[in-house]
Design brief:
By secondary structure, the chain is mainly α. Helix content is 79%, strand content 0%.
């Protein structure tokens, strides 16, 4: 039987999980610097970022299912060291080598994310902790973007930026030694490590939500340029949207135990669709910046409610274990599909795609209770075995 998780072990898992997701926020800066230096093409940048998110999502899902059988105290430090080594090599790689290194780096990063997800859903208030995790990782990405991306990579080159990110892993690896030696299993005796059909539907909703969000987010600056805004204003829109995420994540973490889950998710999705419609009008600077703040705030505000939805739909927590995988795979799929809808002059196809994905997510959230009720009626109507 696993011992109760101490506060130190929980904090250690959080720190390791934040380190695992850092590159997702730094990719535009560090990989973009490689493009500027001629070590990577623009098309290869997209492939490298997508490959890392895909392997990250797959590894997060696998780690969430295996964490009951493999010691987190072994998984966490070894994963941090693997990320450090792959980051250091990435800075010296070119072309296909960069894509390969980032795809490989996604594996240990996903393990750390899967581990912290497993810790979160074992906490007393998992949805609230998921909101805190989102807020902390956003703040960490903003700080590292300024320090590593802005001060190191831009002045000393991409190789120095990747080395700085690798060096940051050294204290994280030490902290990771305090992660728990063992986690207790969930749903003992339930017979399966995978969620039921309703859990999978909730995961599809989360996947579509984040795919729709990222399909729009990745083209926020091009949308600003198409609206006739200056490069400085376009950059400010991204910064303000990230600030909105920090506020939204904190509000989501505080409210998720108290506010109705489906109402919040449906309302947030509807307002995000309205925000996409506002972007499509190519508004002026003030309205564009306000919409960017609203977009970032609601994106982060709704995120912990998906953790709560997954737990509500599947109390065994098996669906919640796969939540980070659905999020990351959605984040990888959205930009990839959006790239097929945009042109050199007009990028608003990403808004149509994002709106469609958000609509699917909202539709699933809306219909889930009805589907569960119909499924229960169908099960009750089956003839009983009289043998």
């Amino acid at each position: 039987m696993a011992a109760p998780t101490t506060r130190a072990a929980y904090v250690a898992a959080f720190v390791a999980g934040v380190y695992g997701i850092l590159m997702a926020g730094l990719a535009p800066l560090l990989l973009g610097t490689l493009v500027t230096e001629g070590h990577l093409t623009a098309a290869q940048l997209g492939l490298a970022a997508t490959a890392e998110l895909v392997t990250m999502g797959l590894a997060a899902g696998a780690a969430g299912l295996l964490v009951e059988h493999v010691s987190p105290r072994l998984m966490a430090p070894s994963s941090v060291v693997a990320i450090m080594m792959l980051d250091a090599v990435t800075g010296r790689a070119t072309g296909i080598g960069v894509i390969l290194m980032r795809a490989l780096a996604g594996l240990p990063s996903g393990v750390l994310i899967g581990l912290v997800t497993a810790m979160i859903i074992r906490s007393a208030q998992p949805a609230r902790q998921a909101g805190f995790y989102l807020t902390i990782q956003t703040v960490a990405q903003l700080a590292c973007a300024a320090l590593i991306g802005g001060l190191v990579a831009q002045r000393l080159g991409a190789a120095a930026g990747f080395l700085a990110l690798a060096a940051l892993g050294a204290p994280v690896a030490l902290v990771a030694l305090w992660t728990p030696a063992r986690l207790s299993p969930f749903a003992a005796g339930r017979g399966t490590a995978l969620p039921d059909v309703y859990g999978w539907l909730a995961l599809v909703a989360a996947f579509c939500f984040f795919a729709g969000i990222l399909a729009i987010w990745i083209y926020l600056e091009p949308l600003a340029h198409q609206a006739g805004l200056s490069p400085a204003t376009a950059g400010l829109a991204v910064v303000l949207a990230l600030a909105g995420q920090v506020v939204g994540g904190a509000l989501g973490a505080a409210s998720v135990p108290h506010w109705p889950c489906r109402v919040v998710l449906l309302g947030s999705t509807l307002v995000l669709i309205v925000a996409a419609a506002m972007f499509a009008t190519l508004p002026g600077a003030t309205l564009f910046l306000a919409t960017a703040i609203l977009f970032g705030l609601l994106w982060a505000f709704a995120s912990p409610y998906f953790t709560r939805l997954l737990i509500d739909v599947d109390p065994s927590h098996r669906a919640a274990l796969l939540g980070s995988a659905a999020l990351l795979l959605g984040c990888a799929t959205g930009p990839t599909l959006a790239s097929l809808t945009v042109g050199d002059v007009d990028v608003r196809g990403c808004l149509r795609l994002g709106t469609g994905m958000l609509t699917v997510a909202g539709g699933i959230v809306l219909l889930l209770p009805l589907l569960r009720r119909l499924g229960g009626i169908a099960f009750a109507a089956q003839p009983k075995d009289r043998s």
